[in-house]
Amino acid sequence: MNIHEYQAKRLLAKYGVPVPRGNVAYTPHEAVDAAKDLGGPVYVVKSQIHAGGRGAGRFQNNPDGKGGVRICKSIDEVRDNAEEMLGQVLVTKQTGEQGKEVNRLYVEEGADIKRELYLALLIDRATSRVTIMASTEGGMEIEEVAARTPEKILREIIDPATGVMPYHARKIAFGLGFEGKQIGTFVKFLSSLYKAFLELDASLVEINPLIVTGDGSILPLDAKMNFDDNALFRQKEVVEMRDLDEEDPAEIEASQHELNYIKLDGNIGCMVNGAGLAMATMDIIKLYGGEPANFLDVGGGANKERVVAAFKIILSDKNVEGILVNIFGGIVRCDVIAEAIVAAAQEVELHVPLVVRLEGTNVEMGKKILEESGLTIIAADNLADGAEKVVKATREAA
Ligand code: GDP
Ligand code: MN
């Protein structure tokens, strides 16, 4: 799960990380009030969307205009810029062409930037440990730094038994060019950040840029946080920050039916039971030259209602041009799945080829239900056969 920049800053502040003062605004009027509270002389009005690259982004209605982060020198300018941005679609490198509508702004006090650095904590999958990443090349995308000047990225892997030790923090501090009093300040900054990361079950905290101001203070100018979905049950405060407007409607619908659905970019919809089988199904579709449109695990205890919902979600994706159902009936019975497929196909008016591979408990009953349904279903005998058939049928239908 992701949250907005202003929410991340609010959480970090609770852990003792110093953050610039600011307030969220949903209307130009609220933006003006927020700015009056801050008192100036410089305000920054920042679009709040779940995507980075806002500063360099452009609004769809005014591609030659300014980006999603505006520096303002008066209350009037704050009002004008808030009016320009709210309700408009911001396109950045990370949003894709369709962009994201800006419905919230963060009005922050302006900072006197001397240096822009990069600092992140993330879970490194290779070592299964929290890793600190830092760079003197802040303000630009870290992927770009990694591609052009990989030697400028510092990494420290943290042993979970010890947590961040002062020597880790000092090493990074020296690498970032901090001197004197700043070293101690940074050590404290990093340990607060690490504590927030652990206690909030974050999977990523990215500060880009981390700035050094004219008077030598160290401040996060931007903050991005991602959280481990499996830990949300114990993160009430984080869950309350969820902004459903930022999430894929199909994924929200899926989570309401306890379906694990992730939308992808391909054209072959998949409905599978079991996460491992779902991964294998996606792999084998690719092996036969197709592109999966989604990951979908209907779960071991899938009932008819859930399968119908799953079908509708798959078909709500306009890119889907063929569907592969791959069910191994263990706990979930093949006849129940077959009934659900028939019910769903009738309800949603199936207009794309459907390949079904059923195996396991009550498979014969399931196959009979499908045969007698009058639906055009391509039966498959095994996983490879199913993948090959769906790729072929999708191509021919297109
Ligand atoms: P992003 O583009 O989505 O990553 O948004 P950021 O919060 O990182 O802002 C983009 C850029 O705007 C930063 O890298 C800064 O250069 C600039 N910026 C943001 N806040 C201020 C500020 O208070 N003062 C100044 N001078 N520049 C700012
Ligand atoms: Mn940034």
TrEMBL record:
Kindly tell me the pathway this chain contributes to: Carbohydrate metabolism; tricarboxylic acid cycle; succinate from succinyl-CoA (ligase route): step 1/1; One-carbon metabolism; formaldehyde assimilation via serine pathway
Q: What class of enzyme is it?
A: ligase
E.C. designation(s): 6.2.1.5
Q: Name one GO cellular component term.
A: cytosol
**Which positions are annotated as binding ATP?**
46, 53-55, 108, 111, 116
The record's annotation in Pfam families points to: ATP-grasp_2 (PF08442), Ligase_CoA (PF00549)
Q: According to its UniProt record, which reaction does this protein catalyse?
A: succinate + ATP + CoA = succinyl-CoA + ADP + phosphate; GTP + succinate + CoA = succinyl-CoA + GDP + phosphate; (S)-malate + ATP + CoA = (S)-malyl-CoA + ADP + phosphate
Q: Which residues bind substrate?
A: 273, 330-332
Q: Which residues form the ATP-grasp domain?
A: 9-238
Query: What's an example of a GO molecular-function annotation for this chain?
Result: magnesium ion binding
A single GO BP term for this record reads: succinyl-CoA metabolic process
The UniProt keyword set, sorted, is:
ATP-binding, Ligase, Magnesium, Metal-binding, Nucleotide-binding, Tricarboxylic acid cycle
Highest taxon above the source species? Bacteria
Q: How many cofactors are bound and how?
A: Binds 1 Mg(2+) ion per subunit.
* UniProt-listed SUPFAM superfamilies: Glutathione synthetase ATP-binding domain-like (SSF56059), Succinyl-CoA synthetase domains (SSF52210)
Which PROSITE patterns does UniProt cross-reference here? ATP_GRASP, SUCCINYL_COA_LIG_3
Cofactor(s) needed by this chain: Mg(2+)
Q: Which HAMAP family match?
A: Succ_CoA_beta
**PANTHER family this protein is in?**
SUCCINATE--COA LIGASE [GDP-FORMING] SUBUNIT BETA, MITOCHONDRIAL (PTHR11815:SF10), SUCCINYL-COA SYNTHETASE BETA CHAIN (PTHR11815)
Q: Which NCBIfam families match?
A: PRK00696.1, sucCoAbeta
Family the UniProt entry places it in: Belongs to the succinate/malate CoA ligase beta subunit family.
User: What does the protein in this record do?
Assistant: Succinyl-CoA synthetase functions in the citric acid cycle (TCA), coupling the hydrolysis of succinyl-CoA to the synthesis of either ATP or GTP and thus represents the only step of substrate-level phosphorylation in the TCA. The beta subunit provides nucleotide specificity of the enzyme and binds the substrate succinate, while the binding sites for coenzyme A and phosphate are found in the alpha subunit.
Assembly and partners are described as:
Heterotetramer of two alpha and two beta subunits.
**What protein am I looking at?**
Succinate--CoA ligase [ADP-forming] subunit beta
Q: Which organism is it from?
A: Ferruginivarius sediminum
